[in-house]
Amino acid sequence: MCGIIGYIGFRKASEIILKGLKKLEYRGYDSAGIATIDSNIKIIKEAGKIEEIDKIKNFTSLQGNIGIGHTRWATHGGVNAENAHPHTDSQGKISLVHNGIIENFEELKKQLENKGHLFKSQTDTEIIAHLIEEELKNSKDFLEAFNRAIFKLSGSWSVVCIYEKENAIFLSRNGPPLIIGIGKGEMFCASDVPAVLEYTKEVIFLEDGDIAVLKKDSYEIF
Ligand code: GLU
User: Is the CB of 73 under 6 A from ligand 1?
Assistant: First the structure.
């Protein structure tokens, strides 16, 4: 099992996420990565240990107050930088991390390829970002597109997603654990409580089938 963390608020997101990822290391992993919104989405990801990746690539060079992070335990595709999370859509405007397995990803990937989508990784995860991108064309807003994409998945997942045009983090749980940490002027999400305990003790455990949206001063669960 691997780990997820997300942050939105007033602090430097990459610092909070890096600390959180280290607290989730006990869950095991083979790669790690962080994405933040710094006017657009910036990503650092690589195979290996968090400490080693950080020494070379400097996670906290990522600026911004919104971000997501991931430690991967590969199920689909080898252990390398391309397959490490976060993944993006074709334009790099949507970025997401995922724990679990998308069982119908081959079928969805074929449909997306027929619509012209090109993929950078061998993961089951990357198709989710492209699906959202596709659904955005027919949705009134990002939340609707996120919902519609999630509805097409089968398998198990915790997905945490950012979109460069939204000051928000979008969550979906169907299997692997996902919690929300409620702060003052900041919100967290993670696969386990220790990743957020330093900042808040107010925690909600999402249930299977939940979709949630975090903003810095509010959260909603659907
Ligand atoms: N199935 C995804 C992958 O292979 C996510 C694995 C995980 O839970 O870390 O990249």
Answer: yes
Instruction: Enter the tokens of residue 118.
Output: 């090109």
Give residue 220's pLDDT: 98
Atom of ligand 1 nearest to the CA of 29: 9
- To test the pocket of ligand 1, the residue of 1, 45, 72, 156 to mutate (highest count of ligand atoms within 8 Å of its CB) is 72
Q: Which residues of the chain have pLDDT under 50?
A: none
Check residue 98 and give its pLDDT.
98
Q: How many CB atoms lie within 10 A of CB 211?
A: 19
- Ligand 1, residue 76: give the atom nearest the CA: 4
Of 180, 174, 77, 92, the closest CA to residue 132 belongs to 92
CB 84 within 8 A of CB 45: yes
Start-to-end C-alpha separation, the chain: 26
pTM of the model: 0.98
